[in-house]
Structure formats: structure tokens, C-alpha cells
């Protein structure tokens, strides 16, 4: 009985492999992202005549699509993705006056989405698709650009963001986040849709997606209220790619 079961499993595996469609899709894209902060943080920014807005970024990588049928497939990806936020508002100068402050912060993530994809239409013509699935991101480093201005004068400076304990010889333009302060792991979900069109041996694709982060970047200190440290990524991405079939029917 065991031999029969193993034989059936082997045949099923060969049939599945023969029917499965393998595609690799190099892709490049634009991101517009911000962070979801707590209501208290949003109120503080509003009280300072400030606002939270989207920052622009870049994303690139590849998707690896395994077709389980003509319509459905599983698509893991590996991406380099920039996510962050913009803040603006007024700050007190300590002498009864104020100055305008602007900050544009971006973090660079290594990201692995695992997407469950449904495609509609003829593969030899324009085809539409949609997908949903989790993603797992890991912050590598980042950069924050700030501008302070008052009375026609302004100061611009850039801060390099790094992770780990701050060394004794740290440069003045470096900011370090220790494991006690920040969570480098960003876990969330993507939902997206797009279209593909056969061109040459493969197909060119255009897609849009929305990413909703579920983990907080800032860690809650002992005795703190977790909701006060809400800091979750929110990302819009637009990608162009080219799918190259590698096997299957």
C-alpha cells in the first residue's frame, strides 16, 4: 500500500510539474507612502499647524510566478522598496517666535510578498489580474532630509538612519535605532490589480497595489500605551514589469 501511495504521489507531482507555468518578472516601480500614526500624534501635529503627507520612493525586484491552473497562481516576490513619510509644521524657537519645519524620511526595506493571483482573459491578448497576500519586510537603513526656515533664511540638513547600538565614533549626521527602540520587521498585506499584454517572447505588465502595514516601527517602552506608539506603513505602488516564461505548457 505504501508503494502504491508513493507511486501515485510521484505521478501527481510529475503531472503538476508538467502543467505548472513558471514565470519570472523583473519589475521596477514608484512608491508613495506614509505612516499611520496614533490619534494623539496626529492631534499634536495638527496643533502645530502641521500635516502628515506622502513621500515618493522607488521599488525594484522580481516576481516568481507558479501557475496552479490557467487562472490561478502563487507569486512570491523579492523587492527593494522605499517607504516613509513627510511631516511639516511650526516649531517654537524658544524666544517667543517660531520657524517652519519640514522633514522627509525614507526607510529602505528588503521585502518578500507572497501573493495569491487570479488572471482573466486569453494569454495571447490583453489579460487582467488581481492579487492579495501577505508581505514581510526588513528595514536596512534610511535617510531623513530636514529643512528649517524663518524670515527668509533656511537651513537644510540630512540625517543617515542606521540600526544598532550607536558607536562612540558615530558621525554627527548619523542617527541610530537600537533594537529596544525600533522594530525592523514590517509585516502587512498587499492587494493589487493590473494588466499584461504579450510582447515578444513574454508579456509586459502594468500594475498598482496598496500595502497596509500591521506592525509598529516604534516599540512601546515599559509602562507605555501601545496605541500611543502606532507607526505603521501605508504604501501605494505602481509597477512596470516584463514576464518571461521559463517552463510549463
UniProtKB/TrEMBL annotation:
Segments forming domain Outer membrane protein beta-barrel: 18-217
Keywords carried by this UniProt record: Signal
Species assigned in the record: Xanthocytophaga agilis
Signal sequence interval, chain numbering: 1-20
Protein name: Porin family protein
Domain of life: Bacteria
